[in-house]
Amino acid sequence: MGHPGHYRDEQERTDSRTVPCSGATHTFETYLMIMRVEGIQQGIYRYLPVEHKLLFMFELDQLEQKIDAITLEQPFVPNFAKKAAVLFAWSTTPYRSEWKYDISAHKKILIDAGHVCQNLYLASESIGAGACAIGIYDQQLIDEVLELDGEEEFVIYMGAVGKKRE
Length: 166
Known about the structure:
The chain is an alpha+beta fold. It contains 4 helices and 6 strands; from the N terminus they run E-E-E-H-E-H-H-E-H-E. It has a 6-stranded antiparallel sheet, sandwiched between helices. A hairpin with a 4-residue loop joins strand 2 (43-48) and strand 3 (53-58). Helix 2 (95-101) packs across helix 3. The radius of gyration is 16 Å and the shape is globular. Residues 1-13 have low confidence and may be disordered.
């Protein structure tokens, strides 16, 4: 099985992900709030990195209004997050790294969060879309919406992706 935080598929191959991670502990999960993507039902999804698939979790009534509330109606560009095609939310489960790095795990988790979001910027640019990182949000509300406990697993960073202005 490996140690906590080390993932293997049924054939015991090591999980390889597309982002660097301190000590291969991969503390992150990726959730998507899909609003405007052709061919994909609006709702909350979770990315499954080993299978490279999206798992539909549930529909959410008034998704755009909840996104405004979660992103605190970002004062410099009001309502931009709800206008995105997809809102990404990365959660972390710190123990996946703490068992190995003790208190310094928290620094590594924050550095890794930057790597994850940078990949979103690169991928967005490669398809002609725009991306915007979101570091200020209502912690309790986003954890509640994604059905996270807010203690063992909680959102640490967000990002919006959508069409660029012409």
